[in-house]
Design goal:
Helix content of chain A: 25-40%
CATH superfamily of chain B: Thiamin diphosphate (ThDP)-binding fold, Pyr/PP domains
CATH class of chain B: Alpha Beta
Helix content of chain B: 40-55%
CATH superfamily of the largest domain in chain A: Thiamin diphosphate (ThDP)-binding fold, Pyr/PP domains
Shape of chain A: globular
Number of helices of chain A: 12
CATH class of the largest domain in chain A: Alpha Beta
Oligomer: heterodimer
Distance between the termini of chain A: 34 Å
Number of domains of chain B: 1
CATH topology of the largest domain in chain A: Rossmann fold
Number of strands of chain B: 8
Largest sheet of chain B: 6 strands, parallel
Strand content of chain B: 5-15%
Strand order of the largest sheet of chain B: 2-1-3-4-8-7
Shape of chain B: globular
Strand order of the largest sheet of chain A: 3-2-4-5-7-6-12
Number of helices of chain B: 11
CATH topology of chain B: Rossmann fold
Structural class of chain B: alpha/beta
Number of strands of chain A: 14
Largest sheet of chain A: 7 strands, mixed
Strand content of chain A: 15-25%
Distance between the termini of chain B: 43 Å
Order of helices and strands of chain B: HHEHHEHEHEEEHEHEHHH
CATH architecture of the largest domain in chain A: 3-Layer(aba) Sandwich
Radius of gyration of chain B: 19 Å
């Protein structure tokens, strides 16, 4: 468990995009085996800005624009990683995994196991997730659960720039494949509409955040809200509103789906007795179910109420703004769920 | 490029080891699977894809390789592994699913990995090609010697990974050679029924790289063409594609009834079995006498017997070790 860094005045703030690029650049400076490849990551600096400045500093040999051939270049990253390099590869939209998933789940994620641990696959697959800006059903998904379900890859999803930098540095230094899933609405790209709270103080010096450590980012006694990525910001906003009505919510940012810091989640629910899980991925067979199962398997007796999940309904993501917004998790849904869960108890407690 | 006498005998030896190995595997495979064939039974459960007839493709290419060169193989990898120098005992043990196997039984016959000789497999058609391109990229970026060989079957030439990988290797001018082992059958579908061009080597032209065709499963011709392609790759000449007309003497997998094959086709193929042909050629050319070839065959058989015995006598893995080596 680690707490996020408090933001102080006059300290440098970065967007997640800048923080990712800074972490990659710092690793490239100290390790010549680190290189970057993907679509539009060179001159353009990545569609989401997360490789900006790398081409100018490191040149086209180490910052490689690829053809639109995800099967080939993600497969190539596996081969390069097995041969001792440390590729950082971008899959522009996670939705595109459909054209290249064999390279990801049958090669990247399995070759360590198939080799009995004699091959290493030190690569980072960074990919954008999430909707909310009416990009339709093939450019708005999260599919966190799909990646986290399949064994052999670590999976991280930062909610703020401080975590993004530390997780990226840790991912690049890891000898295992790490999928780095960044939410588009947290990138600090104005044209996407950005969550300002994701842009936080980021130290200039290099640091790592342990992959597999969750963060309790708000303390509370009445219920636990567990989330990741943009859901953490929904949770914080909901917690603020609940606090004004006398309900104190604890917010856990899992930061890493694989490994999942089950101990931190269970400890929080043991304290509060109530659990809401918020995830922008699809409702069924996913992250929300896994987290609830974790708590229930650990100790059913701590629960004072059935856990609740707030996730994307099991439908393709619709285009029409009102339809998409209807489906997405948001602070209102969390507040309503929390009040339903413990409204009467709290009324009694605070009477 | 013409093989030396030593290279010819090396090729013959590896072809014989491969064939004897597969004969042994085939015999053991049916233990426990008769009279009722159940793939899950016997000392070697699961699918089994034998490469009988395709040995020239392995030796003609791998004769030019060093341990530091990279090979990515397919679901039918035994001949390639043997020619690349994968440890035969540990490979046999892996095929038996034993604790002493290359990966302690986690991989099986379609997933043979030997880091000592840079050998890896994928059981998914054409999916070894991307990793071969990446390994070649790694060597180029590091300025280290080494070419990557991606073996595929002719069915893989209709996969997206084939076209993406050829393009990427060509646009980055990487030291990789793609080898198509054309055994004419994609499981039960004939090449002519699945492929828009009669010969796949022409597809190289679409990616601006040389494409070569070797007919008649001839190990010396394979050696010659592969030697030139590999030398070009080593000398920064970029990738190339080689199509080899070979033959599948066995079924797609053990237990395949092969009802789809035209009557008499296999008899014709057996008459052109590359191993007796090479033996006759070595004798006719005066490269070896009967006694020398007999000796090679005896030694090969004994090496195979040792590997099979090692596999049989090795312990099963601790079942709970299944939970280890997911990450390093």
């Amino acid at each position: 468990m680690a707490d996020s860094t408090p933001i102080r005045k006059n300290e440098r703030k970065l967007t997640i995009a800048r923080a990712m690029a800074e972490a990659v650049a710092q690793e490239m400076r100290i390790d010549p085996k680190v290189f970057v490849m993907g679509e539009d990551i060179g001159e353009l600096g990545g569609v989401y800005g997360n490789t900006r400045g790398l081409l100018a500093e490191f040149g086209a040999e180490r910052v490689r624009d690829t053809p639109i051939s995800e099967t080939a270049f993600i497969g190539a990253a596996v081969g390069a990683a097995q041969d001792g390099m440390r590729p950082v590869v971008e899959l522009m939209f996670v939705d595109f995994f459909g054209v290249c998933f064999d390279a990801i789940y049958n090669l990247m994620a399995k070759n360590i196991y198939f080799s009995g641990g004699t091959f290493k696959v030190p690569m980072v697959l960074m990919t954008s997730t999430g909707g909310g800006y009416s990009d339709g059903g093939q450019h708005s998904q999260c599919v966190y659960g799909t990646f986290a379900h399949l064994p052999g890859m670590k999976v991280v999803a930062p909610s703020n720039a401080y975590d993004a930098k530390g997780l990226m540095a840790a991912a690049i230094r890891d000898d295992n494949p790490v999928v780095f899933m960044y939410h588009k609405a947290l990138q600090g790209m104005g044209w996407l509409g950005t969550e300002p709270a994701a842009t936080v103080h980021v130290p200039e010096e290099s640091y790592t955040i342990e992959i597999g450590s969750a963060a309790v980012i708000r303390s509370g006694r009445d219920l636990t809200i567990v989330s990741l990525g943009i859901g953490v910001h929904h949770a914080l906003k909901a917690a603020q509103r609940l606090s004004e009505r006398g309900i104190e919510a604890e917010v856990v940012d899992i930061r890493s789906l694989v490994p999942l810091d089950r101990a931190t989640i269970c400890a929080s629910v043991a304290k509060t007795g109530r659990l809401i899980v918020v995830d922008e991925d699809y409702h069924s067979y996913g992250v929300t179910g896994e987290i609830i199962a974790t708590v229930v398997e650990h100790d059913l007796s701590v629960l004072k109420a059935p856990p609740v999940r707030i996730a994307f309904p099991d439908v393709p993501i619709p285009f029409a703004r009102v339809m998409e917004q209807f489906c997405l998790p948001n602070p209102d849904k969390i507040v309503t769920a929390a009040e339903t869960m413990l409204g009467r108890d709290v009324a009694v407690t605070n009477a | 490029m013409i093989p030396s006498r030593e290279q010819k005998l090396w090729m013959y030896e590896k072809m014989v080891i491969s064939r004897r190995f597969e004969e042994a595997i085939a015999a053991i495979y049916f233990e426990g699977k008769k009279p009722v064939f159940n793939m899950a039974n016997g000392p070697i459960p699961g699918e089994m894809h034998l490469s009988d007839g395709q040995e020239p493709c392995a030796v003609g290419v791998c004769a030019h390789l060093q341990p530091y060169d990279i090979v990515t193989a397919t679901h039918r990898p035994h001949h390639q592994a043997i020619a690349k120098g994968v440890d035969l005992k540990r490979m046999a043990a892996e095929i038996f699913g034993k604790a002493t196997g290359l990966s302690g039984g986690r991989g099986g016959h379609m997933h043979l990995f030997d880091s000592a000789v840079n050998f890896a497999c994928s059981g998914i058609i054409a999916q070894g090609m991307g990793p071969a391109v990446g390994a070649a990229l790694s060597r180029k970026m590091q300025g280290k010697p080494g070419v990557a060989i991606a073996y595929i079957g002719e069915g893989a030439a209709n996969q997206g990974a084939f076209h993406e990988s050829l393009n990427l290797a060509a646009v980055w001018k990487l030291p990789v050679v793609f080898i198509i082992e054309d055994n004419a059958w994609g499981i039960s579908v004939a090449k002519a029924a699945s492929t828009a061009v009669p010969e796949n080597h022409v597809r190289a032209a679409a990616y601006g790289m040389p494409g070569h065709l070797v007919r008649d499963n001839d190990p010396y011709a394979i050696f010659a063409i592969a030697g030139e392609a590999i030398a070009a790759a080593r000398n920064c000449g970029g990738p190339s594609l080689i199509e080899i007309e070979t033959m599948r003497l066995a079924g797609h997998f053990m237990g395949d009834a092969e009802g789809y094959r035209p009557k008499g086709e296999k008899d014709g193929l057996s008459a052109r079995d590359p191993i007796p042909r090479l033996r006759a050629r070595l004798l006719a050319d005066g490269d070896a006498d009967e006694a020398a070839l007999d000796q090679i065959e005896t030694t090969a058989q004994s090496e195979v017997d040792d590997a099979i015995a090692y596999a049989r006598n090795s312990p099963d893995p601790d079942p709970a070790d299944a939970l280890t080596s997911v990450f390093v």
